[in-house]
């Protein structure tokens, strides 16, 4: 256990304790933090597998990222944050800085491995690697079958794309044409209904004008006619019944 003791004044004392990196234990059933791959290991792996292991790339990226975090969290920043500790206990502050960095790296890599295991990425990446190798093998076998060179297609990529797209576009055009014909029929039906209603309104207007004209004529000829006889005349003109004057 490392301890930092600072005495800013003769009567006061501050003690900070940090857990030793050696005493920190990993959670139960956890995977030990993997070490960063060395250049020799990477070179050996590339020679063994030209496609390179995706899992190794992920671990290298994680290690590189942690290296960047370590570069940001340097001793100078910690010294600026705790100037009095740096002045009175520089050795202990440096030890605390190393312990914090070591703790962050170990815990981050442990959590990274836990995420890989939870999502089953090692197996998925291995399957992807096998698919790539199988595709490369099939390509190599195809070249050997055709005398060392693949037969070049005489169809350009543009024509091949149009050949795949045109049938779909043609089907869409037919659907739009059918929809257009349906809308045209609906519009014709609506226009016929509007014309019919307009004709009925004009007919009613004519009947109304004829009725008003007849009523005016009756009022002039029969000024003393009763209200009942006027209503009867209106009904006769409206329904075509013979008028009884």
TrEMBL record:
<keyword id="KW-0131">Cell cycle</keyword>
<dbReference type="InterPro" id="IPR007128">
    <property type="entry name" value="PMF1/Nnf1"/>
</dbReference>
<feature type="region of interest" description="Disordered">
    <location>
        <begin position="18"/>
        <end position="38"/>
    </location>
</feature>
<dbReference type="GO" id="GO:0000444">
    <property type="term" value="C:MIS12/MIND type complex"/>
</dbReference>
<keyword id="KW-0132">Cell division</keyword>
<feature type="compositionally biased region" description="Polar residues">
    <location>
        <begin position="18"/>
        <end position="28"/>
    </location>
</feature>
<keyword id="KW-0175">Coiled coil</keyword>
<dbReference type="Pfam" id="PF03980">
    <property type="entry name" value="Nnf1"/>
</dbReference>
<dbReference type="GO" id="GO:0005634">
    <property type="term" value="C:nucleus"/>
</dbReference>
<feature type="coiled-coil region">
    <location>
        <begin position="86"/>
        <end position="193"/>
    </location>
</feature>
<dbReference type="GO" id="GO:0051301">
    <property type="term" value="P:cell division"/>
</dbReference>
<protein>
    <recommendedName>
        <fullName>Nnf1-domain-containing protein</fullName>
    </recommendedName>
</protein>
<keyword id="KW-0158">Chromosome</keyword>
<keyword id="KW-0539">Nucleus</keyword>
<keyword id="KW-0137">Centromere</keyword>
<keyword id="KW-0995">Kinetochore</keyword>
<keyword id="KW-0498">Mitosis</keyword>
């Amino acid at each position: 256990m490392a301890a930092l003791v600072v005495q800013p004044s003769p009567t006061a004392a501050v003690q900070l304790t940090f857990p030793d990196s050696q005493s920190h234990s990993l959670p139960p059933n956890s995977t030990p933090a993997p070490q960063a791959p060395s250049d020799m290991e990477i070179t050996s792996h590339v020679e063994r597998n030209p496609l390179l292991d995706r899992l190794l790339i992920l671990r290298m990226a994680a290690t590189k990222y942690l290296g960047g975090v370590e570069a940001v969290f340097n001793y100078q920043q910690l010294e600026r944050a705790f100037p009095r500790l740096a002045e009175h206990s520089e050795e202990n502050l440096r030890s605390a800085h190393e312990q914090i960095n070591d703790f962050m790296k170990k815990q981050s890599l442990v959590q990274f491995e836990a995420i890989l295991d939870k999502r089953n990425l090692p197996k998925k990446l291995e399957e992807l690697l096998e698919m790539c190798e199988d595709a490369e093998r099939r390509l190599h076998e195809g070249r050997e079958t055709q005398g060392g060179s693949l037969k070049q297609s005489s169809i350009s990529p543009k024509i091949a794309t149009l050949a795949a797209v045109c049938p779909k576009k043609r089907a869409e055009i037919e659907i739009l044409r059918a929809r257009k014909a349906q809308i045209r029929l609906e519009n014709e039906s609506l226009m016929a209904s509007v014309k019919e209603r307009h004709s009925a309104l004009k007919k009613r207007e004519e009947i109304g004008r004829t009725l008003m004209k007849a009523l005016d004529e009756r009022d002039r000829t029969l000024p003393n006619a009763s209200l009942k006889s006027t209503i009867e005349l209106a009904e006769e003109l409206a329904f075509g019944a013979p008028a009884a004057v």
